[in-house]
Every structure is written in C-alpha cells, then in structure tokens.
Specification:
The complex is a heterodimer of chains A (894) and B (513).
Chain A lengths: L6 E5 L1 E3 L4 E3 L2 E7 L6 E10 L12 E9 L4 E5 L8 E2 L3 H7 L10 E5 L2 E5 L11 E4 L4 E4 L7 E2 L5 E2 L4 E3 L1 E4 L9 E4 L6 E5 L1 E2 L16 E4 L2 E5 L3 E3 L9 E7 L10 E10 L2 E2 L17 E4 L6 E6 L14 H4 L3 E9 L6 H4 L6 E2 L10 E4 L26 E11 L13 E5 L6 E5 L7 E8 L11 E2 L4 E3 L8 E3 L3 E2 L7 E3 L10 E2 L6 E2 L6 E5 L4 E7 L2 E9 L2 E6 L4 E3 L8 E7 L2 E6 L2 E6 L9 E7 L9 E6 L2 E8 L2 E5 L5 E2 L5 H4 L11 E5 L4 E6 L9 E6 L8 E4 L4 E4 L5 E5 L3 E7 L17 E6 L3 E6 L5 E2 L5 E2 L4 E5 L8 E22 L5 E3 L7 E3 L4 E7 L7 E2 L3 E5 L7 E15 L5
Parallel strand pairs in A: 13-15
Antiparallel strand pairs in A: 1-66, 2-3, 3-73, 4-63, 5-6, 6-7, 7-8, 9-10, 10-11, 11-12, 14-19, 15-18, 16-17, 18-21, 20-21, 22-33, 23-27, 24-25, 24-26, 24-28, 27-30, 28-29, 31-32, 31-34, 33-39, 34-38, 35-40, 36-37, 41-45, 42-43, 43-44, 44-45, 44-46, 47-48, 48-49, 49-50, 51-52, 52-53, 53-54, 55-56, ...
Chain B lengths: L7 H8 L3 H22 L23 E7 L2 E7 L9 H7 L16 E7 L11 E3 L9 E4 L6 E9 L9 E2 L6 E2 L6 E4 L3 E8 L3 E10 L3 E2 L7 E11 L9 E11 L17 E9 L5 E3 L2 E8 L6 E5 L6 E6 L5 E10 L18 E8 L10 E8 L2 E7 L12 E9 L5 E4 L2 E7 L5 E10 L15 E7 L11 E8 L2 E7 L4 E2 L2 E9 L1
Antiparallel strand pairs in B: 1-2, 2-5, 3-4, 3-6, 6-7, 6-8, 9-10, 10-11, 11-17, 12-15, 13-17, 14-15, 15-16, 18-19, 19-20, 20-24, 21-24, 22-23, 25-26, 26-27, 27-32, 28-32, 29-30, 30-31
Helix pairs in contact in B: 1-2
Classes of the chains: A mainly beta (894), B mainly beta (513).
C-alpha cells in the first residue's frame, strides 16, 4: 500500500482516497494576448436588471479580467465567449485618463458593489491610481477622482475637466521637505482644458483672475471656471484706470480719498454691491480706492467695468433680465478720515449721476454724488420664475458624480457665496463646469442662509414638494443634481426648512482621491472597500465609506495599525466575519466601534508570520467554517480564527527553493471544489512565478503522517494533506464559485465551481478532467512529467535489503515507468518482459516488475517512483504497490 | 316641516328580523331627526368658552395704519378708529390760523393690535410670516419691527377689544410691499411736535422736528433721536391775550433740562427733557408775558460714528458734523450771540463758509428796560456776524450790541448737492428709492410764496418761521399773532390787538419726497 502523502517527490500529481495519479491537464479557454504574461486576474459576477427594466432574464454576467504585464493592458471577457474579449485599456482609455501604459505589474482585483476594482502595483509598491470597471457601460475608469477644487499639485497628471484651486505648500512644521499642498482660497477655480503633467513646485502658474482666463502649466492648460451663482444681478467689478483733471471747485481736494463701486442694472431693477470680500474686508475687486495726492482739487475720471458676457441680454439671461447698464457709486472722503467700518457701509456711497452708464463707459466725478444711497437690496431679478429661497448669504459647492456614482467631494476653495437679497427669487447657476469624461452628473450642495462656508452642506437628490400645511400652497423643491455633463445652467429652488433634511455632504470636504495602492479588498461585513499599501498610508488601511467603495475620507477613513513599526501592512481580510489586518509578520484583529475607521482599535493577535504579499493569502470555506491560508517565508499557514497553524512542514525543502526576494509575487489561491490550495511561486532564483505547489486537503489539512503509539512508528494520516509540485506557468488564479442558468457562457463549457488560471503564455486556462496534457496558447498539446517517488514499506525496519522487484497495481494510459531508488537515490529502472510498461485505458494492470540484474543492490531503504516520461497524454494512477526485498542483516542499529 | 311618519308596521317587521324593514325604519328616523334639528335649531353650535374666540363678540372697527422704513427697521404706525391722524396736526393747526396745542381724539376703549409681516401677500408659512404683539395683541400703536431681514415685506394688522376676538387682518400701506429696507422719510408724531425721520450713512437716524409749544412746555422728540444730539431754535408764533405793548423777547430759547447732578449716573445716550421758553417783556419795565413758540429742530444720536461734535470752549455754540451719502459733510450749528458779534466756528472746519451756509435766527434776552417796539428790525446772520435788533415806532432800529440772537445754521462742503431756487439755497440729502430730504432757508416778505424743489410739496414738509423784520406801522406790538408757514407762504402778523401789520419772515423748511 502506498503511504499516502509521504512522497519525497510528487510532481504533477493528483490524489484520490486510495491512489496517486497523474494530474489533469489544463486547457486554454481564453486567448487574451499571446506571450503577454497574465499576472493578475479578477472575477466580476453580478445579477442585475437591464438598465431601465426589471428584466432579470439572461443578464447574469460573469466577467473575467486579466492583466497582461508585457504591455500593461487590462482585458475583460465573459467566460468563455472568445469573441467578446474586450481590451479595456484601449486608446480611448489612455486618451481620456491621460495615463501612460503601466506594464510589469501584478494587480489585485476585487469585486465590490458590482464594480471591479483594480489596484495597480507590483504587489510590493504601488504604481498607478486604482481603476474601477463599470459594468453598465463596460468601461474602465480611474477609481475616485480629485475633489472639486483640489489644490494644484506639481508633477501631477491632470485630465480634461478636472478642477483645481491655486494652492500653497504647507509643511505643518515638519522637516525634510514634508508637507502637503493645500488649497488657496482666491475665489477662483480652474479647469484643465488640455491634459498633461503639471509643472514643478516652483512653477505654479500665475492664475488669472479674469473670466475664463487661461494659463499654461507645463503641458497642462488651465481655464478659469469658477461656478457662477446669482440671485439677481451680482456685484460687478470695480472701476479702473483713474485719471484726473484740475478743478478748483471739486470736492476731491488734496488728501481726499475717493472710493468707487458699481452696481448692475437691468430692465427689472438694480443690483447691489456688497463692497466686501468673504472676510468682511473692503474688496479691492469691487471697490476702487483712490487718494488725491496731486496737491489740489481735481476731477476724477474712471473706466467702468465691462458687463460680463454671461450677464448681457444676449446671454443666458436674455433681454428682459440681462444687465443693460452700470451705476457708479462714490464715497468722497475729503480728509481720508473715514473709519474702516464706514468704508464698507453702503449707506456712505451715493449714486453718481447721470446714471446708468454703459458697459466700460468713462465716468467723471467733479462733485459729491447727488444720487441715492447704494442700495442694499437687489431689485434686479434675473428670472421671472418665482422661487422660495430664503434671503441671506449662503454658500454653494459643486461636485461631480461619475459613471460609477462616485461623488468627488470638494475642497475649501469650492464653496461659492451667493447673497439672496430678495425673497421670491430662486438661485440661478449661470456657469456649471462640465466635468471630466467620466462624469455623469454635477451636483450642487448648499448651506442654509447664515451658515459659514464650512457648512453644513446638503443637496437635494430629487425634485420634491414641501408641504407647509395650514392650507398653504406647496413649495416646489428642485433637485440640485444636474443629471448630465453638458448643461451649464440651472435654476435651483429650495427653502432653508427643507435643506437640513436633504442629503448631507458636509464631510465631503474630507474626501480624497484614493492614492495608488497595492491591495484592494471588499469587506463584506463592513460594506466597505479597503485599500492597503496606499501612498502615504503604508502603515494602515484606507476604508471607504459604507456602501461607497470609492469614497475615502481623510481623516476618518484611515486606520493605522501599529504605525511605523517596521512591519509592512500587507492587506485586510475578513475571516468568519471578523476583520484582520495582515502585516508581513503579524496579524491584528480590527475592532469596529461603529465610528469612523480611524477610531477603531487594532489588537495584535499573533506575530511571527503573515502573508508575504497581498495575493499570498486566500480565504475559503471548509465544511461549516471559513479559513485563511497564507504563504510566509517560514511556510504555509492556515488560520481559522485562533492562531496560525503551519501546514507545510513536510515541504520545507521545497519551500526553501522559493526566491523570497520576489516573495511578494507568491499567490495563494484555493479551489474550493477540488479542495486544493494552489501556491504560485518563483523558485530556484526565478524572478517570476514558475511553479505551482498544490496542496490537496480533500480529506483534511492535518499532517500527512502521524505517530502511532500502538505501532510505535509513523503511519500515514488519512486526514492528512498531500502535495504536488506542478510544472505550470501560471501567475494567478481565481475560483468561480457559482453561476446560474442565465449566465452567458459558451456551449459545453461549465464555469461554475471552476478554477481558472492566468498563464504566462497570455491565456486563461482551466483544468480539464480526464485530460493528461496541457495546452499551449494555441491549444497544442504539451506533455508534462508526472512523477511520484516515495518510501515504500509499511514496516520501517532498519535492515539492509536487496530489491528483487516491484509488484504494482494501477491503471492509466501509455507509458508507465517504474523506478526504484536506493539510499543514494540512484535510480534503477525496473523492467520486465513488457518493458516499458504501457497502460491501457479502462483496464487495471497488475504488474510484477523485476529488478534488473537479479537484485544485487543492497540498501537500507528502498523507494519507488513512477513517471509517465513526460509524454503528452500518458498517465497513470497507482492504487497499490509493493517492493519485493530480501533482508540481509537484520536489526542494524539505525 | 313634516317628516315622514315612521311606520309601526315596519317597526314590527324589523323587530322580527326583516332587514329591509329595518333599513327603511332607520332611514325614516334619520330623515326625521335631521328635519327636526333644522326646525328647532339644534345644529351644534360652538359654546362660548372663556378665553376662546367667540364669533359674536364685539370687535373694533378697522384701524388704519402706515408702514415706513427707517434705519433698517419697519416702523408701523396704527391709527385707532376715531383717532385723529397725527401726521398733519401741526399744519392743520396752522392752516386754521389758530396755533394751539394738539389734542387728538383718543379712543374710548383700549384696542389691542396684532401685526404680522410676510414676504408674500399670501401670508403663508413659507413666506416667513412673523406675528408681533403676542397672542393677545398690544395696545401700542407705534411699532418698530426689527430683524425682519432684507427683501420685500408685506404687513398687516388686526385689532381687538379683548385680545381674543379680532377683526379681520387689514393691509397696511394699501397692501403695497415695502421693499429692501429702502430708507425713506418716516413721519412721526411726538405729542406737540411732528418729526420727519430719515437715515444718514452709518445708520444715523436723523429727524427734523417742528411744533408749536407754549412757554415752559416740553417739546416732544421722536423716539429715535436724542435731545443731547439736537440742534434747535425757537421763535414766537401766537400769544395768550394780553393788552400791553412789549419791548422785545426776554426768552426765545430751547433749554435742555438737565438734572442738578448733570451727566453723573446717566446710562446710555443722554436724553433730558427739552423745555421751550418764549416770553415777552412788557414795556412797563418789569412785567413779562408768555408767548407761544415755533420750534424747529434737527436731532440725531450724538454717539453715532457719523457724528462729530464741536463745542465752543467756554461758550454755548455747538456744531455737529454729519456725512451725507456720497461723503459730503454738513455742519449743523446753534448758538447765541450778541448783536454784531461773530459766531464761533470750529477752527478745524475750514470748509465752513458763509457762502455755503443757511441759517435762521431768533431774538432773545432783550433787556427789560427797553422802549416798546413795533416789531423785529434785524434778525439774521450777516456772513458769520449776528445781527439782531428791534424796530421802534419811530422807524429807527434799536441800538447795536444790545440784543442777543439765537441762531441755527447749516453749512456744507464744496461740491455738495445744493440747488438755488429764487435765490434761496436748498440742500439735498438723497436717500434711497427716489426719496430725498431737502433743507432750505431764506427771508421773504410775508405772504410771498416759497418755491420748493421739484417733487416736493408742503404736505410733506416741516418748517419754522421767525420774524425777520417789521413794517413801520407806528404801533406798539402786543405780540406776534402769527409767524408760520401757511400753505406755501410764510406769514408774519404783528398785532396791537386792534390792527395788524407784517414784515419780512425768516424761514427754514424741511421738505421731502
């Protein structure tokens, strides 16, 4: 009887309860890209109604994703419809994203909320911003994005549509050049109109403070794009170009200071001018301050500002509401003694007649203005739509929503003030920036009147009706989502009693663009996506918001685990519903307290081992429980919630052949159907994965041999694990757990409960039962050397023995070499009359094979081996064998 | 009305389980009951519960009211039914030729008012409707509504005798909206005076007040202004009957009645009572006779940042400098000078010049040993020099340097919006929304109409007149029968109780649009 699991060499083997056999071969199922080594794969399976319907028929989709490391492309394909292979990283992808090709990576892919997330890294260091695949449109997008009005940063790839704010570098007192770029609130935002990489830190562009002003930034082109919200005509710019002429009768005497501001007028009335900036200080952009230093009385001439094009009657506002003229107001302070509070008080300003004047007109002041005081309430309605927006100063912030329903958030520079001075007016948005290519909607959030620019901000997801009761008429509330990426104007109506109950997005200030990371994982218990190895967060994990896999807030979403202890944080996984943070040499249980992840606890559970890389761990079910298996330098470990257990001690010699300098490439993948653990690893100095260790745990994961007290010796363990080292060049694998009848698939191919392998030849392969050859990229048969060598003897006596021959019982097809090995591992091919032994399919063969030369070789122990000679299609399955030996000297001390 | 007869036969059938009969009986009963209730009036009626509205309770007739905007607040003035409009009391008295104290008719029973403001004429919940006066209302008729915020507001009020049962909501200002806190001129009655209030830069509420006050009577001030920030003058206008010739006015003053302790312990802006003195010297050398007085005042908050006060060191002259919209400064001054002396002007105010100044004067402090007079001789500022004396029946003016002159002056900076009409200056203070206040002064012959700036009318004006001269009647005046603006002309009437004569009239007018 074969001592199961005690093979010294088990190569390309598979096991049954009573036999060891040549493993099944692998068939090429998907040709992705020939010789483009597939180093990462992913599975996306979802059941969803067709958009806009409730039809669930034939819409279950199983998509495989593959990454080719040679050219860095990502593909999707439904298994196994070859004709639907899609190259996701096509020219449009690179054109839209501005990304350069990203070859030579080992990405990690994870499904979350019916989206496929891809972390682009080499399993050690992050490389690119993560990606997300959106099934409804079959497109690969950058996951998350910069917040609306993000601070400009140097050396950054920007794409068309992204909106940034002028920024400053802030060190926060840190040394060594540490720090971050923070937004500078200039009141202006800029949109990328030509993609490229921004300049260096010393070359931040001189941002223009002009309407639609443009500026170049290395390869990037920026254009002023500040959203424009009005409720009535807005404050115009200050007059410019002061010039003088002597006039002895003028009140503008030497030493006098003249302050000039303007209002806009339209056929409905006159706007106002707040005179001040958001800090309440006199705003030089709105008020011209000029002091007479000429030595005598003068008349003062100025140029009125031009009416912005978007406010002209020819623009959006039309002839009834467009600005048709400008009123000039002056405050002549003859001895420049006015207090600070007076110069920002509109009641000190009076209208300069004649009025109104035209856009950009020349005006002269030669006397105290005799017109009315500067109005404080606008009468210049800009729409005839009756609104209900409460009066007062409020802030509105725009942000984008992408195709994956990710909402970008916004920065401190994003909120724009609008002063609603008149009840019954809505808020008009005259310029709503069009977002990047992946934006599907723009959203406007608003504070209530009187709140600060810090919020609270809420937005209204759908149009509604506010019922005030008391037999009062309903108030129509407009949605503040503009559900396209085209419209640039909007009319918003809401009340301050409704807003607080709308969708609160105040914490969107904290949303960050997910940095390049090594690992992405969907924590199903938490309903969050978890990113690990992210730039700037190497000691912990970034947790998304609940059910918002792309939305990560800092602070709040970052969980530091034993920060900066020299032990790299590898990944986060859930086992039996409990979250664990895996570091290279330790593990921490994560204690969710219901608050933000940054407040959670991380309690060390064990130390001494951990997954060598983010893919060197897998979670699978076993009977009624769940377990994790990971590869560490010291061996393969299994964890079921208590303590890690080494399950590879019998393969120590093989384990040490792994090139641990490239250990991060190791992948552990579990085939739950066949109960196999695949360890894909680089061995013997290889820098790429070049072998597969397969551990069979069909009957258990216990040690393969146990000590029998009754027998006083080691005996095979029926619940023991069994190993095989396979000659396959697979970089990654994944298990497809299920499919339904409606899943799209090729006829005759079943992908449920199937393990698929991502091969170095650029194809995706599966194991085909009963097939004893592998297929190359084109499907040609490739043989493999199936070999098993083990110690044969149920009675481990320590005696020298002569080998007379072997008695074998097996089945198979074709060549069946039987070899005996002595203590020096010298092979002796056992041959007989039918040598070489050829097996016939469907027949069980019992063979007594004699030792050549009559069995003259003596050895303390004899081993037997079987192989198929590496002949494609040749296989064997051995049920039992026995060596016929002749004891020579009994009881030799061992 | 006869109801259907309920069939006993059906009742018996119903009692035996006939459902159709039961239904019929019940329908007949229901019909009968309804008709019976209609006949006997048993329809449920609200019981009168104490503290709850009762539709049959008496409610007041509708009051009237107006709203204006002043200093960022809405001023609501309700006129109780039966009450006399306080707005035109002074002019009504003057027009009647019988200057006398104002005595509006008061309601016989207290009336409680509620006021509500809304951004919509619908006065619904979504229109930020705010109600003032509590649940039961208040008896006050003058309301200052602050904090309503910007925007257009509609205001209504309603009235009640008991604070429970109110009449219908009534629109103020005929239902017109008041928009945007546009500062305008607000008229306000203060008992024996009328005030026109407006707002200067810095939210400086400024009022022009005028009234007819008896000697030793207190002059009423509007609520928003302070006597410590008041520039005023008083001049004679009417007198209680008396039969002696007079030698002049011993008193024609506006006195602030400060407590003996002065400003000690005063919290806030000082605002002491204003007492008017107007007294004639009987030509017997020792007797005195009271007179009624015109009072004209410009008042404000002296602590406002837009006010700078200058006081004559050791003297009585006070100047207040205020900024107008646009930055122009005006200076309001008052003082008392002996005839032929120069008034004090703050050295810092180099821009004060007689060419940019208007003024009005009144004679006072005449010695009691003077001879009887026909009327006023001179009573004005000539340049910056006071000129004041009386005309004697000989046709000669009294000696120089004897009489004292109370004066009130308004000066302005170069470049200020001042227009000249018929030789008289009119200073324009432009407000918002087309509203403006004009201040003009001059001297005209009695009965000569004054032309107001365009857009103004005497209906919206307050004024004072003081004697500026006298016809040489050869008679001794017993008093000044009238010195006031009547319709559009200033009138001056001296009397010796049998004949009357006139003369030049000094006038100062505040008119607004």
């Amino acid at each position: 009887m074969l001592p199961l699991g005690l093979a010294r060499i088990a190569r390309n083997q598979r096991y049954t309860a009573q036999s060891t056999a040549t493993r099944y071969g692998h068939s090429t199922r998907l040709q992705i890209s020939q010789n483009d080594s597939l180093t990462g794969g992913g599975l996306l399976r979802y059941l969803a109604a067709q958009p806009g319907t409730l039809n669930l028929q034939a819409v279950e989709t199983i998509l495989l994703f593959a990454y080719g490391s040679t050219d860095g492309n990502i593909y999707s394909a439904p298994p196994f419809l070859q004709e639907q292979l899609v190259k996701l990283t096509d020219a449009a992808f690179f054109s839209n994203t501005g990304f350069a090709a990203f070859p030579a990576l080992n990405p990690v892919m994870a499904q979350a909320f019916n989206l496929m997330f891809i972390a682009l890294a080499n399993l050690l260091l992050p490389s690119q911003f993560p990606l997300v695949y959106n099934p409804p449109d079959g497109t690969l997008y950058p996951a998350s994005d910069i917040p609306f009005g993000a601070p400009w940063t140097p050396g950054t790839q920007y794409r068309v549509g992204q909106v940034v704010s002028p920024s400053t570098f802030q060190t926060f007192g840190q040394s060594g050049g540490q720090g971050t770029w923070v937004p500078q609130q200039t009141g202006f935002l800029f949109q990328c109109i030509q993609a490229g990489t921004s300049g260096n830190a010393a070359s931040q562009p001189a941002w223009p403070n002009t309407f639609e002003g443009e500026v170049a930034d290395n390869a990037v082109e920026w254009k002023e794009c500040t959203p424009i919200f009005i409720s009535g005509l807005p404050d115009p710019a200050a007059p410019t170009a002061p010039s003088t002429s002597v006039d002895l009768a003028s009140p503008i005497i030497n030493g006098a200071t003249v302050r000039l501001c303007c209002t806009l007028v339209n056929p409905q009335g006159e706007g106002i001018n707040s005179l001040v900036d958001l800090q309440g200080n006199l705003d030089a952009a709105k008020v011209l301050s000029w002091t007479n230093n000429t030595g005598g009385p003068v008349d003062l001439s100025v140029l009125l500002p031009a009416i912005p094009a978007y406010l002209l009657p020819a623009g959006t506002l039309g002839p009834d509401f467009g600005a048709t003229g400008i009123n000039l107001y002056a405050f002549i302070d003859t001895d420049s003694s006015a207090a600070a509070s007076q110069i920002v008080d509109p009641t000190y300003y009076a209208l300069v007649n004649p009025a109104p004047l035209g856009s950009g007109a020349l005006a002269m002041i030669s006397a105290f203005p005799g017109g009315q005081q500067l109005p404080q309430t606008s009468t210049a309605a800009t729409t005839d739509t009756v609104g209900n927006v409460d009066t007062g100063l409020r802030y509105l912030a725009v942000f984008f929503q992408t195709a994956t329903v990710y909402q970008t958030g916004f920065t401190n520079s994003a909120p724009q003030a609008v002063n609603v001075t008149q009840s019954g007016w809505p808020i008009q948005c005259l310029r709503l920036p069009v977002g990047p290519y992946n934006v599907q909607a723009r959203i406007v959030a608003s504070t209530v009147a009187g709140a600060s620019a810090a919020g609270p901000f809420t937005y209204i997801s759908q149009a509604d009706v506010e019922s005030p009761g008391f037999n009062q008429s309903n108030v129509n509330i407009t949605s503040t989502i503009i559900s396209d990426n085209v419209t640039t104007t909007a009319l918003l109506n809401f009340t301050d009693t409704y807003l607080p109950g709308a969708s609160d997005v105040t914490n969107y200030f904290d949303i960050i663009q997910i940095p390049p990371c090594v690992d992405v994982y969907f924590a199903k218990t938490l309903q969050r996506a978890v990113y690990t190895g992210a730039v700037g967060y190497q000691s912990g994990h970034l947790f998304s918001d609940i059910q918002n896999p792309e939305m990560v807030r800092i602070p709040g979403g970052n969980l530091q685990v034993s920060e900066n202890d020299g032990d790299r944080c590898v990944c986060y996984r859930e086992i039996r519903g409990i979250g664990y943070s895996f570091k290279e040499n330790s593990g921490y249980g994560i204690e969710d307290n219901g608050g933000d992840p940054s407040t959670w606890g991380a309690r060390q559970i064990w130390a001494g081992n951990g997954p060598v890389g983010a893919s060197a761990i897998d979670i699978a079910g076993q009977d009624d429980s769940e377990f994790a298996i990971w590869a560490h330098r010291s061996g393969l470990y299994m964890f079921t919630g208590q303590a890690p257990m080494l399950i590879s001690r019998e393969r120590l010699a093989d384990w040490e052949t792994i090139n641990w300098d490239y250990g991060h490439l190791v992948k552990v993948r579990i085939d739950q159907k066949r109960r196999l653990v695949h360890v894909l690893a680089p061995i013997n100095g290889s820098t790429v994965v070049n072998t597969r260790f397969t551990m069979d745990y069909y009957f258990g994961t216990a040690d393969p041999v146990i000590f029998s007290r009754m027998q006083g010796r080691l005996v095979p363990n029926p619940q023991g694990r069994k190993w095989s080292e396979d000659d396959v060049l697979f970089n990654d694998a994944l298990y497809i757990p299920q499919k339904s009848l409606s899943a799209v698939q090729a006829a005759g191919v079943d992908v449920k409960n199937e393990m698929v392998f991502f091969a170095q030849d650029g194809s995706i392969k599966t194991m085909t039962d009963g097939q004893y050859f592998d297929e190359d990229y084109d499907g040609n048969q490739v043989g493999y050397f199936s070999n098993w060598i083990g110690v044969l003897s149920n009675n481990a006596k320590r005696t020298f023995r002569k080998l007379a021959g072997a008695r074998m019982f097996g089945t198979g097809n074709g060549l069946w070499n039987i070899v005996a090995y002595d203590d020096n591992d010298t092979p002796y091919l056992l041959t007989g009359p039918l040598s070489p032994i050829l097996l016939t399919p469907g027949q069980r063969t019992r063979a007594d094979v004699p030792m050549p030369d009559g069995g003259t070789i003596e050895s303390l122990n004899w081993a037997v081996g079987m192989d198929n000679g590496g002949v494609a299609g040749a296989w064997w399955q051995v049920y039992s064998s026995d060596l016929m030996v002749i004891d020579m000297w009994p009881n030799v001390p061992g | 009305m006869a109801g259907p007869t309920v069939s006993r036969q059906k009742m018996v059938a119903a009692s035996r389980g006939d459902s159709a009969a039961l239904l019929e009986v019940l329908c007949q009963l229901a019909t009968t009951t309804t008709q019976q209730q209609a006949v006997t009036g048993t329809t449920p009626k609200n019981n009168v519960v104490a503290g709850q509205p009762n539709s049959s309770a008496p409610v007041p007739p509708q009051a009237t009211g107006s709203v204006s905007i002043l200093g960022g607040a809405y001023v609501v003035q309700i006129v109780n039914p039966g009450g006399q409009s306080p707005i035109s009391a002074v002019q009504s008295a003057e027009a009647a030729g019988n200057p006398n104290l104002n005595s509006p008719v008061q309601p016989q029973k207290a009336i409680y008012h509620q006021i509500r403001a809304s951004t919509s004429p619908a006065f619904n919940v979504n229109s930020n409707t705010q109600t003032f006066g509590g649940n039961t209302g208040q008896i006050q008729t003058y309301w200052t509504l602050t904090g309503l915020g910007s925007g257009t507001w509609f205001i209504q009020f309603r009235s009640s005798y008991d604070g429970i049962n109110f009449n219908r909501w009534r629109n103020a200002n005929s239902g017109n909206a008041l928009g945007g806190l546009v500062n305008e001129v607000t008229e306000e009655n203060a008992g024996n005076s009328e005030w026109a209030l407006f707002t200067l830069p810095g939210n400086l509420i400024t009022g022009v007040g005028a009234g007819i006050v008896a000697d030793q009577e207190q002059f009423g001030l509007a609520e928003q202004v302070y006597s410590s920030g008041m520039i005023a003058i008083a001049g004679p206008n009417g007198f209680p009957p008396q039969g002696n010739g007079v030698s002049g006015f011993t008193l024609s003053d506006v006195d602030i009645v400060e407590p003996a302790t002065g400003l000690a312990g005063v919290v806030g802006v000082p605002d002491f009572p204003v007492e008017i003195r107007c007294q004639m010297a009987i030509a017997d050398g020792f007797s005195l006779s009271p007179s009624f007085a015109n009072v004209f005042a410009i008042a404000f908050d002296p602590t406002n940042e837009n006010v700078t006060l200058y006081e004559e060191p050791g003297g009585t002259t006070v100047w207040a400098v205020l900024r107008l919209p646009g930055g122009a400064r005006i200076a309001l001054g008052q003082g008392k000078n002996l005839d032929q002396t120069q008034i004090w002007v703050p050295p810092a105010l180099t821009w004060i010049d007689p060419s940019r100044m208007m003024s009005i004067c009144s004679l006072t402090d005449t010695p009691q040993d003077q001879a009887p007079v026909t009327g006023f001789g001179q009573n004005q500022l000539s340049g910056l020099v006071a000129a004041g004396n009386y005309l004697h029946d000989s046709g000669h003016l009294g000696p120089a340097g004897v009489q004292s002159v109370n004066w009130m002056a308004i000066a302005w900076q170069q470049g200020t919006d001042v227009q000249t009409i018929n030789g008289f200056p009119w200073l324009k203070i432009q407000l918002q929304g087309g509203h403006a206040m004009f201040l003009g002064a001059g001297q005209s012959a009695s009965g000569t109409p004054v032309v107001l700036p365009a857009g103004c009318s005497f209906d919206n004006s307050l004024s004072i007149c003081t004697p500026g001269g006298s016809d040489n009647s050869g008679n001794h005046m017993r008093g000044i029968q009238r010195c006031a603006m009547l319709f559009s002309a200033p009138w001056l009437v001296y009397t010796d109780n049998s004949s009357t004569w006139g003369g030049n009239v000094n006038w100062m007018i505040a008119a607004w649009i």
